[in-house]
Amino acid sequence: MSMADATPHSTVPAAVRLTDIHKSFGLVQANRGATLEVARGEIHALVGENGAGKSTLMRVLSGMYTADSGRMEVNGRDVTGWTTADAIDAGVGMVHQHFMLVPTLTVAENVMLGRELTKHGQLDVARAERDVEALSRTTGLAVRPDARVADLSVGEAQRVEILKTLYRGARILILDEPTAVLSPPEIDELWQVLRQMRARGETIVLITHKLDEVMEISDSITVMRHGRTITHMRTADTTPGDIARAMVGRDVQLAKDHVAEERAATPHATDALLDVHDLVVTDARRLTAVDGVSFSIMAGEIFGIAGVEGNGQTELLEALAGLRAARGGTVHIGNAEATDFSVKERGHAGLSHIPEDRHLRGLILDYSVAENLILGQQDRFSRGAQLDHDRIMQNARTQIAEYDIRPADPLLPARALSGGNQQKIVIAREMGRSFQVLLAAQPTRGVDVGAIEFIHARLRRARDAGKAILLVSADLAEILALSDRIAVMYEGKFAAVLPRSEASEEVLGPYMTGAAAEHAA
Amino acid sequence: MIVLLFLAQTLRIAIPYLFAASGGVISERAGLIGLGLEGYMLGGAFCGAVASYYTGNAWLGLLGAVVGGVLLALLYAVTSIRFRGDQVVIGIAINLFASGATRFFLRLLFHSSANSPRIPGFGVEQTGTGWLAIARNPLIWIGILAVAFMAWLLYRTPFGLRVRAVGEHPAAAMSVGIRVARVRYLAVALSGALAALGGAYLAFDQHQFTAEMSAGRGFIALAATIFGRWDPVRAALACLLFAAAETLQIQLQGAQVIPSQFVEMIPYALTIVALAGVVGRAVPPAALGKVEGL
Amino acid sequence: MTIHATEITPAPPSAAPAVNRASRRAELEEAFLPAIVALLIAALVGDVLILSFGQNPGTVYKLLIEGTWGNAYGLGQVLYKATTLTFTGLAVAVGLRAGLFNIGAESQLAAGGFVAALVGLALPASVPTLLALPIFIVAAAIGGGVVGGVPGVLKAKFGAHEVITTIMLNFIVLALLNYLVAAHLKAADSLHTATIHTGALPRLSNYIGPFHGSAANVVILLAVAVVIATWYYLFRTRGGFELRATGLQPEAAEYGGVNVGGVWWRAMALSGALAGIGGLNFVLGYKYYYEDSFGSGAGFLGIAVAIVGRNHPVGVALAALVFATISQGGLAVNAAVPKQMVDVLQAVVIIAVVASVPEVRRVLRRER
Q1: Would the CB atoms of A447 and C9 count as touching at under 8 Å?
Q2: Looking at the partner chain, which of A55, A378, A411 has a beta carbon nearest the beta carbon of C238?
Q3: What is the ipTM score, two decimals?
């Protein structure tokens, strides 16, 4: 191992040194004085909550964005303000969270894009394919070079992304949330590849907010919060609790710590308010995404669905909400057979829905807060064909006060509010109406800690009022903190359904990875 | 003999479509809607006629046509790429601009609101419509070569690979250091040059420029681009199909079998059918019409 | 590069009332600055064209104003043209509010006029105008609405892009109407139908003498009413709420219980109907027959009118007056410079507005 004899405090310059980086988009300051130092040959975790500015900082490093101010050094060289092409030439490569692959091109074409191999002025596809094959062999990243990227699985696509950067001679590799879309075996493979790269002396920056990953793979850690660098530490000298504290800026009870204090009561009724039987749903590519799922949720119960994202949770929720047609199975809301109900009819039957992506579905960003507070209930706020302006405003003032939405101006466009306050609009709208069943998808994604506690309290209150709640969250701690029963979704099926008392991260983990699927009844 | 004459006339009618549709393919594959093809054709025809008239040389006239088409295309490119204006609106405005400007300068330069004086061109005097006439017109050969060239450029060269990437997933192209805007400028300029050659063909065939002489051919070329599913060879086949329908209508004119208006509708109706997916859906490049954020 | 949504939290702290007032001022600035910039650029291009023709720009612009707003006849012609443009502009604006680009106003206008003329030929002369008028409005709305609705249905059912289908339908419908008139309906030695029997509407000159000779007629009052009705529909009704929601964020509208495909085809049909009613201006108010290609570009210009009017009904009416003035002004200056100059100027206005909107927005945001 070539780096074995390097002393920790050698005079070798750092692979990356970013100093006091500022970067704004319009009024939003994504980075305000971010600093990062990465030693050569290490795996460096860049952690922080959603919106902490990690991705922006790394896009600045990879030349995709130009910083407003600050200094950038790579291997001791001042590279401030460089372009993507410069970064690639200097051996800095980035694997983005949303893949930067052209789906209509082949693997080999994607790999050589921007660095095309030519023979007599023409593309030399054959040689590119041979090169990709060779690189696949040496790195263990197996893909068919002539396959169209659109036909690859997510894991394969990520391999192509990594191959792409290595093909360009990357010695410093940045990975943005690489495990969000991977299955557990794919994650293990990725760790192996990264460790091999480290052994070859290459440098890796890993953006993540998953602390178990940080502890498992990284050598050192930089924590960001609100666009600033908070601290830098050696992984060996720290604990997940320390990292979490640095991430959120104060002592947090990690959500799982306060389960016990909540909830003594059991669900009060035996009536199922939501009953799903053998539901089959296909995704946009017409592949089966939900594969025969059955469950019931009682009044006064929170039913949590855990699992790695992309295992059918989105399609399940969309089918329940009436946004995607079911291929098979039945759905009952209360006593109503609701399988073929439209979105509106489901609303009338007592269904409320906090959608997983508030910027896509939950809000119309250019509509005012008041208008957003009636979205989906526009029928109720009309007289004949006409909107009832007075009642819309009155409703807005009530909800703004009740849910503490700031600023308290019903006419402001939703776009102008912070993420947490935007989510409060959605929560207020969906929980402020009369409903029996609530679908809550990622209810606290991208909101600050204060808002998380507020939203959790609201969900508990609704449960105590006898509502049936389906909670889907990528955050296992959130599932454990709120749910009465927990299902683990894996490849479109429930790998397990457990009462809260039997569930823990240790128990659920293997089901999420598919390793324990066969034990599910 | 009848068949040969039919084919010859089809080819003659198809040539301006082939040029403009080749331009449409490269522009749309790079992500820029080809609504301005009509304007580039008209502008190209006029500039070609002016250059040919003043130099007395049809080849220099061609050069003039290319310059005119490229300038219009760059006006479209700059306003839609640099200034991020809406491509649909600007494309339509380019056509209005070309229509107004050519007629304005027609009056300024030639004191006529209808047509230019006689210019050097490539058209054979109105005697034969057979193969001889075709063989003597270099623009026919250039038009056929343009299709082959476009197919080669798009699928066999680094530039073509970049065009395909830029029109499908510009952010991916940018992330590997490709200058997306530059690729797009080049593709649009090329589309302007090609469509202008199609326009020049019209003017040089008749040895004069006539007001509004593109007469909707740019839109037929756009229809061929879509009907050919953004592939140079398939688009060329669509051009030939549309041209054959027109030829048939001309040949049958005396017979009054089908009213000419219905033949006129064929390209447009087929394009709608293709878009509605009745026979296999036409899926446009993913980033077509979107330039925001780059 | 789009910034991933979750990466831009936290949003800036905002003091409510101040932001609110400032954001409304910014809205107004954003609405008017591009139009002003565009007119300045157009004037500059106009100068160059006029000078190239050896004329004095000042003189020509004076002619333009005198020939339009400077005398009652010119003003009447401006009002007549603005009436049609208001309808086609509203048509495009309603489509855009629903997120759809209706390029087909040209053929929808023609179809509306055509169907109205057919009805006018079928109705007996004894039917009083007041009774005939609603029938004509419905007929024109159906004519335009069907032509507009087809691309809407194709979009909702098959996802066929409405820009292309409306363009293609323009050619198809105009060819069809041309065939019907030329082969079956034309009066001798013309490309128009016979004169309708009833429903002819009075010219404004019947009430205001100086308008004499101009085509301005009482359809302009209908235009004003339709502007108000469109505004009311878009901003005060549930249907308008759902239509605009669909235009801004179709996924969110769908989540909010809106049948997005239904909004698409209804919005396109409504858009076509608005353009179709515009055909009455020619058929009922001016010539009293349908004439092939009477629209002569008013449908396409409707796109410019909607864009410059920022898709707001009142803005559309104002923009229609601007474009009608330029258009009529071309005839007024034709003796000095070719009237085609105004086509160039209109194109310049369109391009400059469209290209300066994002730029103006950026500059304004940076200042703040």
Answers
A1: yes
A2: A378
A3: 0.90
